[in-house]
Design goal:
With about 450 residues, this protein is α+β, with helices and mostly antiparallel strands. The chain is built from 14 helices and 23 strands. The protein starts with a helix and ends in an 11-residue tail after the last strand. Bound molecules: S-adenosylmethionine. It comes from Lederbergia citri.
Length: about 450
């Protein structure tokens, strides 16, 4: 691997005696991780059913190292959202944000959704999670991952931090800024990060991060928690950004949270004018633990005014519009999902309680997508299938993870079978994976075309 020369010179100067050990880590194989999605399966049940060789990641209860040759990214359990493949160090961030059920949480730089999906699992389908991504194509991928993981309480926007700050002042209990950074900690995992690196870009990233943090600060309630994280080593970002932010916004302090084994302290002497408690922030080093490079700071807003200029979302009360959905719900659910309805064009969504209006914001997903209102009928969405559990629906169609039937379903083929006609929640080993519609001894396949597996 060709590491940038200026980067190596800088790291040698910073790390001194530790540099050789750090440099050697680039010749070690990177560790792969998966995080169990506790919205769909408990950790114990997953371990019992998983076909993979797993080893516990010490700093996150849902995290496991896996063996790359076993390819968990191409498995029916992956399509059913039982786990998310995530770099092991990155899992520390969701752990330290520590979101709770019922809270209002913002993930400001969220795509592709590793941390969003972790936060959502911790919230256990209660509360309100706004996942935002500034780049439109990346926002789509974020939205797809939220769907696969069966998350009901997330809204996905494609906005700038500034525009969200105007709409959501002092609204959130917790905010994550997983900042766009110079990516030095990802050189082993992603050679592109290496090619794009320069000293100028480090400076540019630092000033962008200050700007993003200032908007995040506006959106946090007094008493709320703000987590800033990067996947870079550069002190101009990391300790430098946090020190400058705390100097400019005196309502915040660095929280003391427990350090897991292998986490190192933030470096006071690597920057000028370091914040007094900067050593309470964390560095994750590839030569000190089995993961890539990361930095995490946990901040609390100890003070500040509450700004209340909120306008709530208008929810649908017109039962006539809901007629086809109500019919579908009667034929399909034992327990229909609860919440408030909103209609975006012909798309019906269920939105979390207390949601503010999203008018004039770029919204990809205003809540749980229930489905499409067609002429005289309702067609359920893939997102709904993935968010449902088998005891919530009348008809299920279960196939084993190693069966030909599940592979056939994932390829989009028709399945043969008998039963009452209607919508069936298709499952792999009892975990929802999509819809099928049975009529005349044939289950018509509703697995989305864009997700279908190729080949035999
Ligand atoms: C480190 S990545 C986020 C990774 C994500 N949190 C995860 O765990 O999957 C940073 C994200 O910030 C976005 N970004 C870039 N410039 C931004 C800006 N000015 N404001 C907000 N987000 C930005 C990038 O598009 C990128 O998706």
């Amino acid at each position: 691997m060709d590491l940038p020369k200026d980067f190596l010179v800088k790291m040698k100067d910073l790390l001194k005696d530790e540099y050789e050990e750090f440099y050697k880590s680039y010749h070690e194989p990177k560790k792969q991780g998966l995080r169990v999605n506790t919205l769909k399966v408990s950790i114990d049940e997953f371990l019992e059913k998983s076909p993979f060789t797993l080893e516990k990641i010490p700093w996150v209860k849902e995290g496991f190292f896996y063996n790359d040759e076993e390819r968990p990214g191409k498995h029916p359990y992956h399509e059913a959202g039982l786990y998310y493949i995530q770099e092991p160090s990155a899992m520390a961030v969701g752990e330290l944000l520590d979101a709770k059920p019922g809270e209002k949480v913002l993930d400001l730089c969220a795509a592709p959704g590793g941390k969003t999906t972790h936060i959502a699992a911790r919230m256990n389908q209660e509360g309100f999670l706004l996942a935002n991504e500034i780049h439109p194509a990346r926002a789509k991928i974020l939205s797809q991952n939220i769907e696969r993981m069966g998350i009901k309480i997330a809204i996905v926007t494609n906005e700038t931090p500034a525009r969200l700050a105007e709409r959501f002042p002092t609204y959130f209990d917790r905010i994550l800024v997983d900042a766009p950074c110079s990516g030095e900690g990802m050189f082993r995992k992603d050679p592109n990060a290496c090619a794009e690196w320069s000293l100028e870009n480090v400076a540019l990233c630092a000033s962008r991060q200050i700007d993003i943090l200032a908007h995040a600060a506006t959106m946090l309630k007094p008493g709320g928690r703000l987590v800033y994280s990067t996947c870079t080593f550069s002190p101009e970002e990391n300790e430098g950004v946090i020190s400058q932010f705390l100097k400019e916004d005196t309502r915040f302090t660095i929280e003391s949270v427990i350090a897991y084994e292998g986490f190192r302290k933030g470096q006071k002497d690597w920057i000028v004018e370091a914040a007094s408690d900067i050593d309470k922030t964390f560095r994750l080093w590839p030569h000190k633990l089995q993961g890539e490079g990361h930095y995490v700071a946990v901040l609390t807003k100890i003070d500040g005014e509450v700004v209340d200029r909120r306008k709530f979302a208008e929810v649908l009360k017109d039962q006539k519009v809901l007629k086809d959905y109500t019919q579908f719900a009667k034929e399909t659910f034992i327990n229909p999902p609860k919440g408030n309805f909103i209609l975006f064009g012909d798309q019906l969504y269920l939105v979390p309680d207390g949601m503010l209006t999203l008018k004039n914001l770029k919204v990809l997903r205003p809540g749980l997508h229930l489905g499409t209102k067609k002429k005289n009928r309702f067609e359920p969405s893939h997102a709904l299938a993935l968010a449902l559990k088998e005891d919530e629906v009348i008809h299920t169609w279960n196939a084993g993870k190693d069966s030909d039937e599940i592979k056939s379903y994932l390829r989009g083929e028709l399945l043969a079978g008998k039963g009452p006609k209607g919508w069936y929640l298709v499952e792999v080993d009892g975990f929802s994976i999509g819809w099928g519609k049975l009529a005349g001894d044939v289950l018509k396949n509703h697995y989305p075309k864009g997700l279908r597996w190729a080949g035999k």
